[in-house]
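Lab notebook page, bench 4
Experiment: in silico fold of construct C2
Operator: M.H.
Input chain length: 93 residues
Purpose: comparison with the prior construct
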Amino acid sequence: MIETETFESVWDAVADTPIEAANLRVRAELMRHIAEIISQNGWRQAEAAVHCDVTQPRINDLLRGRVSRFSLDALVNIATALGRRVHIELDAA
């Protein structure tokens, strides 16, 4: 019988540590929110790049969900360029 390991989230499955999984989870959530803002405004990638103060290839990476290419700092900077404030909330694990 093959034993299968189950995880609470995909991030827990791909990360080496719970700390890394938490970081990936937060980055992915910020990326999702930024992608929603881009979509809601109907911006093409080049337009979004101008609004986000990054290059078009960075927007492409963001919209394709390439989490590993973004730090939390970079995502907070993009959110700020969009006139948003990032709110951090700590919950018990």
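Observations: Residues 18-41 form the longest helix (24 residues). The domain at 15-81 is CATH 1.10.260.40 (434 Repressor (Amino-terminal Domain)).
Next step: discuss at group meeting.
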